[in-house]
Amino acid sequence: MFSSSFWESDFVSQTGFDTLVARMKEGRQTCRDVEDFIKQRAKAEEEYAKALLKIAKVERGSDETGTMKNSLKTLQREAEAEASIHLNHSQALQDQVKKLEEFREKQREERKRHEDAMHKAHKLKAEAYRRMQVCKGVYESKFKSAEKAESDLERIKFGNKPKEIDKAKKTAQQSKQASVKANEEYHSTVSQLEIIRQSWELDHRTACDIFQRLEEERLQCLRNELWVFANLGSDLFVKSDDISENIRLSLENCDIDSDICDFVSRKSTGTQPLTPIVYQACGGSTNGNVTRQAPNFDNRDSEYSLASYASINTSSPAGSGSKMFVALFEYAPRISNEIELIVGDKLICIEEGNDGWIQGRNIRTGESGLFPASYVKAE
Questions:
Q1: Mean pLDDT on 254-281
Q2: Partners of 361 in the beta sheet?
Q3: How many angstroms from the chain centroid is the CA of residue 146?
Q4: CA 343, CA 21: separation in Å to the nearest integer?
Q5: Arithmetic mean of pLDDT, 267-280
Q6: DSSP characters over 52-73
Q7: What's the rounded mean pLDDT across residues 65-72?
Q8: What mean pLDDT do residues 255-259 have?
Q9: Can you give the C-alpha Rg of the chain in angstroms?
Q10: Higher pLDDT residue, 261 or 232?
């Protein structure tokens, strides 16, 4: 296609070939631009990999325990793995850049070789054309001189001046000889120019075909390398997703209850809450109405009911249902059959057990249930 599309009408012009050379240089610059893009991307990947590796080397959550500690170790390990794949990706991109550079340099050498040859052929053609033009001008001038000398001879040859006639004959003969010689030289330069033109035409066709092949190879190379670039990116994302999946899997194995139990079993500081402070009067005697120690809520049965309390041996006298208590502390129910207390609540005792619990009703709320005896005092 190139060999049928880049000719010129001017014999000394090489516009068509120059157009092809310009295209080759533009293509070379495109290769440079792609190389620079991939090179910058490789540099960014390398810097990112180094930053990731620096982050991954710092141990975090060193005081964590249980399954969460395992997840954090997985996070650190996978961060190092991700840094590694980005570093490998950077190296793969650098290999691409090197490959493109080698391809571009190879094309440049081949293009330059044929470009130089065509410039020489064009210079030879142009010089032959100018030499032919000079010979043509000389021939035309000599031909006109010969015609003029012949005309002068015809004009005076029947006169009575023999000397002038002889001189005119000699001039006409010399002019004719010069014209013939100029014609021969002109004809020779035309023949030489045609030989050079045919050689140049063959070289031009060859160069056009070679340049078309180089252009096809360049486009094919760029297309393939950009395709590889895209595939490398896809592979990077797949590997990154695999790393994220490993982190997700480790988090699926993270058992919150297990970690809480592990922490409690190793770091527990005690199982009993603070007991209320007992008022002590001067002299060591205590007021009979002061509060008693709260019972241990964690050790009692959380499923007891009011009906089970009917069987408890009580120390309350008959008619204890009318006994009144007042709340000294706030108490939040822990199970369904307990009632809420706030400081100052009035409570009617229904039944008072000997295990530190009282069955009663809160006058403020109207709720009936159990409340701790250590949180109230008799009124």
A1: 78
A2: 348, 368
A3: 83
A4: 99
A5: 74
A6: HHHHHHS---TT--HHHHHHHH
A7: 88
A8: 86
A9: 56
A10: 232
d(CA 82, CA 85): 5
pTM confidence score: 0.59
Instruction: Provide the CA 186 distance to its chain's centre, in angstroms.
Output: 70
Q: What is the DSSP letter of 342?
A: -
Burial of 95 by CB count in 10 Å (0-12 exposed, 13-18 middle, 19+ buried)? middle
Q: Using 50, 70 and 90 to split pLDDT, how confident is the model at 341? A: very high
For residue 247, which of 86, 67, 85, 76 has the smallest C-alpha distance? 76
Map residue 5 onto helix, strand or coil: coil
What are the strands, taking DSSP E only, across 129-206? none
The b-or-e profile of 167-183 (16+ CB within 10 A means b, else e) is: ebbebbeebbebbeebb
- pLDDT, tens digit, for every residue of 119-158? 888 889 889 989 999 999 998 998 998 888 888 878 777 7
- pLDDT tops 50 at residue 363: yes
Cβ-contact 340, 334 below 8 angstroms: no
**Distance between CA 207 and CA 111 in Å, rounded?**
9
343-356 b/e (C-beta count within 10 Å ≥ 16 → b): eebebebbbbbeeb
305 dihedral zone (left: phi>0; alpha: psi -120 to 50; beta): beta
List all residues 6 or more positions away from 9 whose beta carbon is below 8 Å from its beta carbon.
Answer: none
For Cα atoms 14, 18, 24, give the angle at the middle one, nearest 5 degrees: 155
- pLDDT for 66 equals 86
